[in-house]
From TrEMBL:
PROSITE patterns: ABC_TRANSPORTER_2. It comes from Micromonospora echinospora. Residues 7-232 form the ABC transporter domain. This is ABC-2 type transport system ATP-binding protein. CDD domains: ABC_DR_subfamily_A.
């Protein structure tokens, strides 16, 4: 029997009034990987992750997380760590008070891991979170999520507002936690550099739909640049003098970069919103 997937969606749809945030999304994300969820602002990334955390309910379709409905019970909640957009923390609480709150709320809390990480990134336990820099708040939020010792970390654009140095340090910390915990992670970002640093699986979301998904190495191996589309290939995007195509028959073409691959699918989605890979 195969272990349950990290995320599994079938015809997952979420509407807010007349606006459709996700439309008939099918997605299977394996466990034990770091998944980059990429797409432009408004693509539905935050909606998908909020559904995965049980913060909102789908309009239709199904979604399971680690083999169960999102936030199915207290035990399931303990298996998932979540860092929301803007890495929210309580401004009036000190760093140490955040750690005590984490210990009180989470039965599997690893106090040693939390304190070690706080020391590594140079946070003063007595300092109030409201006086921390953006990068420090992000590191505190990540430490709180990881000290639950979850099986899956879900991070919704946690470093988007950070400067390049703080963002690099955050990604380094995320990669370290994934290795130490043996956990999987889903990282939402519109910054492809972040994804390239730590992710081995890619999901491109645009126009409310999953455009393409799979292991990064496989996607890069099956997409190529060429002057024209060879027979038997799927044209993802074409512009004068250059085609990005998918399929084994493109082996003689030049390999694409991760950025070119993502931009090709985003360009196709913008031009043909109903088309998915």
């Amino acid at each position: 029997m195969h272990p349950p997937l990290a995320l599994h969606a079938e015809r997952l749809t979420k509407r807010y009034g007349r606006r459709t945030a996700l439309a008939d999304c099918d997605l299977s994300v394996p466990r034990g990987h770091v998944i980059g969820l990429v797409g432009p602002n408004g693509a539905g990334k935050s909606t998908l992750l909020q559904l995965a955390c049980g913060l909102i309910a789908p309009t239709s379709g199904t979604l399971t997380v680690l083999g169960a409905p999102p936030a199915a019970d207290a035990a399931h909640l303990a298996r998932v760590g979540f860092v929301a957009q803007d890495t929210p923390v309580y401004a009036s609480l000190t760093v140490a008070e955040h750690l005590r709150m984490g210990a009180w709320l989470n039965p599997s809390w690893d106090a040693a891991l939390a304190r070690r990480r706080i020391d590594e990134v140079g946070l003063d336990p007595a300092q109030k979170a409201g006086r921390l820099s953006g990068g420090q708040r992000a590191q505190l939020a990540l430490a709180l999520a990881a000290a639950k010792r979850p099986e899956l970390l879900i991070l919704d654009e946690p470093a988007a507002a950070l400067d390049p140095l703080a963002r690099r340090e955050f990604m380094h910390g995320l990669a370290g936690f994934v290795r130490e915990l043996g956990a999987g992670a889903v990282l939402s970002s519109h910054l492809l550099g972040d994804v390239a640093q730590v992710c081995d699986h890619l999901v491109v979301l645009c126009a409310a739909r999953v455009q393409v998904a799979g292991p990064v190495t496989d996607l890069l191996a099956t997409h190529h640049r060429a002057a024209a589309a060879p027979a038997g290939t799927e044209v993802v995007w074409a512009e004068p003098g250059r085609v990005v195509a998918r399929g084994p028959a493109v082996r003689d073409g030049a390999p694409v970069t991760l950025e070119e691959l993502v931009l090709a699918y985003l360009s196709r989605a913008a031009a043909h919103p109903a088309v998915t890979g």
